[in-house]
TrEMBL record:
<comment type="similarity">
    <text>Belongs to the NipSnap family.</text>
</comment>
<dbReference type="InterPro" id="IPR011008">
    <property type="entry name" value="Dimeric_a/b-barrel"/>
</dbReference>
<feature type="domain" description="NIPSNAP">
    <location>
        <begin position="4"/>
        <end position="104"/>
    </location>
</feature>
<dbReference type="InterPro" id="IPR012577">
    <property type="entry name" value="NIPSNAP"/>
</dbReference>
<dbReference type="InterPro" id="IPR051557">
    <property type="entry name" value="NipSnap_domain"/>
</dbReference>
<dbReference type="Pfam" id="PF07978">
    <property type="entry name" value="NIPSNAP"/>
</dbReference>
<protein>
    <recommendedName>
        <fullName>NIPSNAP domain-containing protein</fullName>
    </recommendedName>
</protein>
Length: 105
């Protein structure tokens, strides 16, 4: 299993606006294309104004195929434009994680 771990740091005061837009418009598209949402979180301690989410894939090839299809979806393209224009995200960090032999996932 491959886990795509993403951390977005929001512009202070924009976290709720990001979450509202994403839940309403972005999440349904991603669920349709990416499938395995492991979790979606906001930070309580440490660096504030962060969203952390994880998506699971069978392999790197599975991830690439799913994300490529999503990037071509006109609804996703429109959502990304709308999200960028809202100016909510200040910084983004992505990590691909490979599970160990003893991981429960």
């Amino acid at each position: 299993m491959i886990v795509d771990l993403r951390t977005y740091t929001m512009v202070p005061g924009r976290l709720n606006a990001f979450l509202e837009l994403y839940e309403r418009e972005g999440l349904p598209i991603q669920k349709r294309h990416l499938g395995n949402l492991i979790g979606y979180f906001v930070t309580e301690t440490g660096t504030h104004n962060q969203v952390v989410h994880m998506w699971g894939y069978e392999s790197a090839a599975d991830r690439e195929q799913r994300r490529t299809a999503m990037e071509k979806d006109p609804e996703w393209i429109a959502y990304r434009k709308k999200s960028a224009e809202a100016g909510n995200v200040q910084h983004q960090c992505n990590k691909l994680l490979r599970s160990t032999s003893f991981s429960p996932l």
